[in-house]
Amino acid sequence: MNDWRYRFAEQRGTLLALLIFLVMFVIYVSNHPAGFTANVVQTAANKGVLLAFVAMAQTFVVLTAGIDLSVGMVFILCNCLASYLVVGSPSTTALGLFAVLATGLVCGAINGLVVVFGRLQPIVVTIATGAIYFGLALLLRPNPGSTANFNSDLADALTGKLPGGIPASLVALFVVVLIIWVPFRRSVIGRAAYAVGSSETAAYMSGMPTRSAKLVAYALSGLLGAIGGLFLTFFTYSGEASLANGNTYTLFSIAAVVLGGVSLFGGKGSAIGAIFGALAFRTIGDLLFVFDLDPLWQPLFQGVVLLLAICLGSARLFQVKNRLDLFA
Fold first, then answer.
1. Are the CB atoms for 55 and 115 separated by under 8 Å?
2. Who has greater pLDDT, 293 or 138?
3. For the chain, how big is the Rg over CA atoms in Å?
4. pLDDT for residue 327 is more than 50
5. Please, what is the Cα angle at 124 between 275 and 197, to 5 degrees?
């Protein structure tokens, strides 16, 4: 019984995010003119997956009690880069994909190196590096566009429907979770990242690899941002150095993380919860569409949902006398 209670408490944020998403999605498809169809699900999935990747990226850093305000700019930079490199034959496309992912990984690693060895606050570091990454994106794509031989076949395969009407983008998201999040969560580095978020001093005194954990968390954040940028290129067939999009995805990723039950104090939460938080957050805009409400109301609805999620997630604080109890 105690084990069951522990696991329920551990996954409470994820379950809450899942419940919010399911309720909102059921309301959405129930009121959509086309109903619950494969095309409706595919469209919703494609929009939600973009934010889900960026929210996953943010999760890695937030778990270490940091924050990454450059994640949206890594997302935009890799979108612009992919519009040049995901071209031509399968071998050329594979090299392009590798280069884009490596770029995101390097961007995240740079953030981690400056934070860890420069001993600077993550919020300051990532604001500065984010400006640099956006400058590079603007240098690559001063005007939106793509190359003539962009590999649209790959883009269609990863954004279309699989047999049975299953959105390919959701399958890709599931594969990324299995390949990146699950091994990280079960590794020594992953456990150290949680420990750093709970108490970096205690983790260091316990002999845990605190520096490595933070470096890996930031590097993986950049990698996930790059994957999101790739999918943005697959959806749009082009790259665009949009400051508004970069800032929007950064802020929305923080909102999705909170909505998904990941503590901004670090050491608690899951990328799975952040994914459901992202999907729920995206569904808000879809609800405005089906109810034919003015899009200007969207920030209000998003703010109300986020505020409710924060209140529910923070309710336990009133019962805690010792901060260490939060991580018990």
1. no
2. 138
3. 20
4. no
5. 50
Cα–Cα dist 169/151, whole Å:
17
Structure letter (DSSP) for residue 165: S
The per-residue pLDDT for range 97-144, each reduced to its tens digit, is 999 999 999 999 999 999 999 999 999 999 999 999 999 999 999 998
Min mean pLDDT across 137-141, 269-273, 290-294 is at: 290-294
- Model confidence at 301, pLDDT cuts 50, 70, 90, reads confident
For the segment(s) 10-327, the CATH number from 1.20.900, 3.30.1490, 1.10.3470, 1.20.1050 is: 1.10.3470
Residues in the chain: 328
Alpha helices in the chain (DSSP H): 2-10, 12-31, 38-62, 71-85, 90-118, 122-140, 152-159, 168-176, 182-186, 188-198, 200-205, 210-236, 243-259, 271-290, 298-314
Mean pLDDT over all residues of the chain?
Answer: 87
Burial 51-74 (b: 16+ CB within 10 A, else e): bbbbbbbbbbbbbbbbbbbbbbbb
Token pair, residue 77, equals: 């930079």
Residue 10: CB atoms within 10 A of its CB come to 13
Which one, of 5, 9, 7, lies nearest residue 313 by Cα? Answer: 9
Domain boundaries, the chain: 10-327
